[in-house]
Write a structure and sequence with these properties.
By secondary structure, the protein is mainly beta. It has a single domain (about 5-175), classed as Immunoglobulin-like (Sandwich), CATH 2.60.40. It contains 1 helix and 11 strands; from the N terminus they run βββββββββββα. It has one helix at about 165-175, and strands at about 5-10, 25-30, 40-45, 50-55, 75-80, 85, 90, 95-100, 110-115, 145, 155-160. The strands form 3 sheets. A 5-stranded antiparallel sheet has the order 2-3-9-5-6, with no helix packed on it. The longest helix has 12 residues, at about 165-175.
Length: about 180
């Protein structure tokens, strides 16, 4: 069983409209155990302040020339604070925008989502990128970010501690051959 953990630090821009705690990073953990089935589970922890919160799913992807963020793959979105569900609604005009009300006494918003990787091979970063032997995950597929934030990120990928001794021995044999 493999579990990939991806941590992203988002550094929000200074803004009077910021809905997040500017001193703490947003973290993302991506579980790619089912990537061969084209499913990625993600858990985000977002420092927030009580009150209205607007979240965005990435619409404009670097290197693409249209608003092609793969929102059709975002499923099972659940928000919670202090162990209780937080209701949310999608904006009626911009489907990439999600709105909620953060309850009083909340310091962190927990966000759980699943991303379904497309099976078709058309497209740029949203095209099929998973098989039984390979999985490729783009950050924009499993992230939400708050209004008033700077979309620049620093990413850190953690992988499971696995015994690679069989891989090392095969690579030594292959090098000698």
């Amino acid at each position: 069983m493999r579990k990939f953990v991806v941590a992203f630090l988002l550094f929000p821009a200074l803004s009077s409209l910021a809905d997040v705690d500017l001193g703490k990073p947003i973290t993302v953990q991506a579980d790619a155990n089912q990537i061969s089935r084209k499913i990625v589970h993600a858990h985000l922890v977002m420092p927030v302040k009580p009150g209205p919160l607007t979240l965005f799913y990435p619409k404009w992807i670097p290197g693409e020339h249209a608003p092609t963020g793969p929102i059709q793959g975002l499923v099972d979105l659940q928000l919670s604070a202090n162990g209780k569900r937080v209701p949310w609604r999608r904006d009626l005009v911009d489907l990439y925008t999600i709105r909620c009300e953060v309850p009083a006494g909340t310091a962190n918003l927990d966000i759980d989502l699943n991303y379904l990787i497309p099976v078709d091979v058309e497209g740029y970063s949203s095209a099929a990128a998973a098989s039984a032997m390979l999985g490729m995950l783009n950050w924009n597929q499993v992230i939400l970010y708050p209004s008033g934030s700077d979309p620049d990120r620093r990413a850190r990928l953690g992988r499971p501690a696995t015994d690679h001794s069989s891989l090392r021995s095969r690579s030594r044999c292959a090098c000698r051959a």
